[in-house]
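Handout, section 4.2: multi-component inputs.
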Amino acid sequence: MKSYLLPEFKIIRDDDRCIRCQVCVRQCGFGVHTYDEENDIIISDESKCVGCQRCAVFCPTNALTIMTNPYEYRPNANWRKEFINDVKKQAEGGGVILTGCGNDKPYKIYWDHIVLNASQVTNPSIDPLREPMELRTYLGSKTNQLEMVDGELKTVLTSQVMIETPIIFSALSYGAISFNAQTSLARAASEFGTLFNSGEGGLPKELRKYGKNAIVQCASGRFGVDPEYLNSSAVVEIKIGQGAKPGIGGHLPGEKVSIPVSRTRMIPEGTDALSPAPQHDIYSIEDLSTLIYALKETTNYEKPISVKIAAVHNSAAIASGMVRAGADIIALDGIRGGTGAAPKIIRDNVGIPIELALAAVDERLRKERIRNKCSIIVAGGFRNAGDIIKAIALGADAVYIATAALVAMGCTLCQKCYTGICNWGICTTDPWLSKRINPDIATKRLTNLLRGWSLEIKEMLGGMGINAIESLRGNRHHLRGVGLNKWELDVLGIKGAGE
Amino acid sequence: MKDLKNIANPFNDDKVSANCSIFGMMNLSGTTFSGKDILTAIKNMRVRSNGLGGGFACYGLYPKYPDHYALHLMYNTREAKEISENFIDKHFFITRAEEIPTKQIKEIIDPPEFWRYFVHPKTELDKNHYDDYVVEMVMTINTQIQDTFVFSSGKNMAVFKGVGFPGDIGRFFMIEDYTGYIWLAHGRFPTNTLGWWGGAHPFNILDWSVVHNGEISSYGTNQRFLEMYGYKCSLYTDTEVIAYAADLLMRRHNLPIEVASKILAPPLWNTIDRMDKKEKELYTSLRQVYGGLLMNGPFSIVIARNGEMIGLTDRVRLRPLTAAVNSDMLYISSEEAPIRLIDPNIEYAWIPKGGEPIIGRLSEKKVIYNEKLTLQDLNKEA
Amino acid sequence: MNNLQNGTSIKIDAKEIFYKDLNNFILDSALKGIKKIILNNVFGQRYIASRLYNIPKIEIEVFGTPGNDLGAFNDGHQITVYGNAQDGVGNTMNEGEIIIHGHAGDILGMSARGGKIFVRDYVGYRAALHMKHYKDKKPIIVIGGTAQDFIGEYMAGGIVILLGLGLKKGESHKPNFVGTGMHGGTIYIRGVVNSFQLGKEVGIVELTEEDHKIIEENVKKYANYFNKDVDEILNNDFIKLIPISKRPYGKLYVY
Ligand code: SF4
Ligand code: SF4
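Output:
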């Protein structure tokens, strides 16, 4: 069938600059560029191009410009280009449209409508470079009270995990991402004193030495889950849902299940790895409790148990139930959370923004006086240190980042993660492409990002006259809304700017 | 329900802030002395206040009624008095009720009326729940009855406070005529509100009285943390939050003051990292569990309860505090000058380290500061 | 106002005199040619000597406890306090000398650009904060005891000498964050400081002949003012702290 779709990207090659080195030919895993020896020209098949910019970055003479193809249909506010093209795609293929990365629709991003405070006159701002500025955070369930008898501490807290910055790498599973990419995340987390999350694809044996910095997931597919896996971690996370695809399972195609992936996931090579939509031993809240305590037993109560859910309409009530079920950490993933593969229709339409979910959950847990019983980690589209510090002030203990970490390693959000071809070597198990991630360099890029954001958080804390992050947690007085309706301000629990 | 917020915080600010002078003095043997000296001392720091609030707290002034809760109330109207008295009558056995004597002076314009009641709870509750009962009643009066405010509710203690310079407030209440073994004083320099009589300091709840200087940047965190334990922060002040924190930690959670002060002003993590195992575990747990009560930002405070007076500053000492001793007397003040003014024979005056409490304890008849030190070391201690 | 004039010197009983009136009186006296002013019964009056700008040098002796900002913006006068001083001694001082027979409070010599301060005992938080030197002006602070945290914070110039008198043998100095943010000037410390007490911007270096001369010269003055044994003080090791880089934060920013 002839496709009626036009190429999404346009490739312009400046022939005066091109030296026919063929770097672009080798760099593009999608086979866009080919060299025609006879005529000594490079030919580009634009229909295959995903706009990842790999060839443009590596072209030694800067000869390439990759841009969105500027063609236009007749303007139509309802039938926008994207929808016309999706219909065409489905008319030609007859399936569910698959995509990668987070929701790219223009839902209101509340971070962009919240501003922070700073000290003036009545109390001093603090210089974070010269004075102490503490970001250390402990994840885990706290009690409401410490008991002391004759100067001796009687209360023993359940396990707590220390992080030196409230930024954690979110779940990225081996198989979805390359071994080198996961290695870089593990090394960066361990160098910086924070955590990485194995995702649901198991933890390769080679990375178990970074277990002290690992959150290992136990998801519906239970890939690679055995007692050794669970015990080589800092935190065990039960994955109920994911912001990019609430209520949906996962499917790692057999082509990506290489020998090492099969070893780590403990499934035969080349078979599809299916994650069922629900965890089939959790059909209700008391079942969640059963699994939480099963994991606690297996790990000898040495690890906090996290439960991760997608932010949905009644997250607050669900979170309350999760805490009562024994979760030490609640992880919330908002509508802008990323994914390696999800049905586009789900990614773009299901769930709620993380800002609102976080505000509601924190408030609800406080009203029920159980906020101390858990830590809250939030995820879903955190783009910079400003988003993160606002989340802390709304009530989060820490923030999960995944997309930002991938971007630090080279990702340009081309959204083709599900193809198994990733020109940046991140979202692929192809050995040739995977080599593009050099763990030494990628680790440096990741620790640089953590350092830069942590410094920025310190700067902002200092500006507010605060020198320990716990004094900002839930401190909504330091936030004001700009351009928000009353109901939005109410849900966020903040005043409008100028109020 | 009355709109206390509108009175205490008319501009709906996040909170009401003030910068102030504070002074506390205690006789460690429990010998009582008149309010004359503290009046002189707080007047000496007049430049630290601006006439929008001043007040005093005194402990040990009602030896005739040591076991009664002494409720001190202000009334703006006749009606307020009637409603409040009915309420008190309904919930307490009143042993004695009297108007608090005041002197008319030209600096104090249009004051409310003041009454005190020596009471026992009228309740089926067990004796060890009396304190909670009184807290609840006080919160009810303060948040529900118009034109009324409870200044203090502890035993054998009183708070006298109002709108004006502390010197004038002291003369107005004739505090020279009272004797006690602990006195606190406060001169206020509010940042963002006009004064009202109930909003002056010291702030009191039950036995606790607090005077405070500075502004806490962690207020929102502290307030929301305390709300989880049932405290309603209705006055929007740091002082109120500190008093509730003291009540929670020391009365309800029964933690010693030495520990409680390390919650309000904890050591830095890198200091904790250098501690031995046991100490490290304690301090880490304190920050993990009570991190929401870290008072972050500049503060110096003096807290008193029956038998104890405590001075403390934030952990990087952004607000000043000086302490001094002379035989049985302990002084804690924003500045050294007023101490020397009222007691020229001071033996030791020293500047306490940030986050290190100074504790005067009646039962042990001594001053505790940085447990590793004896009093004789203090003049060397930096 | 109760005062007693004797040639070019005058005695004042400052009790219950508001600081503004007291400073008026000091200024008037100086303008009349008085060279020495003795203030008795000082209890918290602020800004002593701050008003004496562009006036030939006078001496002020303070008995009691002067208020905050003693000698702030001091422009060349000598102030001697017989007692402890509160916060802000020599704040942004330009020239002159302040001698404290006791301890001093926080931010001693903050932003001073010249002059000398001698404190017999210890000092509070943030002494010598952002002190600087410029051309021929070089402030010097000598502290007999130890200090509280953040001494030399942001220090950009000048000299601090911390003698540690009164510390037990082997006992380390008290402050943490010594010289945090320091980017100029020198701190000499007699006695023990642990490396965790130092700010990340400073380093310990060897003393030169020149350093010993500076120390000796100023310790002599100190000993002379407070009647201490010079040799005993000098007969002890000093360490020297200087900023290790003029731009310790260069790597903080990306463009
Ligand atoms: S897919 Fe990427 S590498 Fe290939 S042509 Fe397009 S931009 Fe270049
Ligand atoms: S990489 Fe650049 S220079 Fe090399 S062949 Fe491609 S377009 Fe030409």
